[in-house]
Amino acid sequence: MDFQEMILSRRSIRKYINKAIPKEDITKMLEAAMAAPSAVAKDPWFFFVVAKRVLLDELAEVLPHGKMLKQAPAAVLVCGDMDKTYLGNEGEKGYLVQDCSAAVENLMLSATGLGIGSVWLGVYPRKDRMEGISRLFKLDKSRVPVAVVSLGYPGETRPAGSRFSDDKVSWIE
Ligand SMILES: Cc1cc2nc3c(=O)[nH]c(=O)nc-3n(C[C@H](O)[C@H](O)[C@H](O)COP(=O)(O)O)c2cc1C
Fold it and tell me: Atom 2 (ligand 1): residue with closest C-alpha?
């Protein structure tokens, strides 16, 4: 499969078979995540890999649309570090959320390439979810939870497809 096809084949996978993901594959996904672009190359991200059943179940309670975590063999919590991020002079969190989002997408594309299903579970900017996760993971004040990625070998198939839409593009030539 070429790279373009792989990008188009990534779909949110919310049903999983009961099969553990090898640590080496999770490490590959993290390597892809950490290869994402980041403002001023600050790499302000931090990852928690969760493969402990009881914690995955607790995560599912904190995330109202994260019930698939009860089936998932693993998940990755992506946080940004306020002490490391490039703040510039403007936004409250600087580029933290954008940097972490780029890492999330790289992680998910890497999972697709490895035959592993994934779904992005939004955390930031929902206060209740951020607080719930900060409590569960005992996060330092400087760590901002941005997203959780639920992972597992697919227990459902979802068709690849293009969402290309001409009316979302203006060509200026
Ligand atoms: C910021 C963000 C938050 C999301 N939160 C959730 C979520 O809480 N639960 C969920 O099942 N899917 C969540 N999704 C996945 C979207 O629903 C999904 O990407 C979208 O419907 C497009 O489908 P696809 O991923 O199969 O292309 C989220 C996606 C993004 C980018």
Answer: 122
88 has pLDDT over 90: no
Q: What is 3-154's CATH number, 3.40.109.10, 3.40.50.150, 1.10.3720.10, 1.20.1050.10?
A: 3.40.109.10
Nearest Cα residue to atom 22 of ligand 1: 12
Closest CA to 72 of 111, 40, 105: 111
Nearest CA to ligand 1 atom 31: 120
Mean pLDDT (the chain) is: 96
Ligand 1 centroid from CA 64, angstroms: 13
Render pLDDT for 49-64 as a digit per residue (tens, 0 to 9).
999 999 999 999 999 9
Q: Is the pLDDT of residue 90 over 80?
A: no
CA of 67 to the centre of ligand 1 (A): 13
Does the C-beta of 62 come closer than 6 Å to ligand 1?
A: no
pTM: 0.97
**Residue 34 burial (CB < 10 Å; 0-12/13-18/19+)?**
middle
- Of 34, 37, 57, the C-alpha closest to 47 is 34
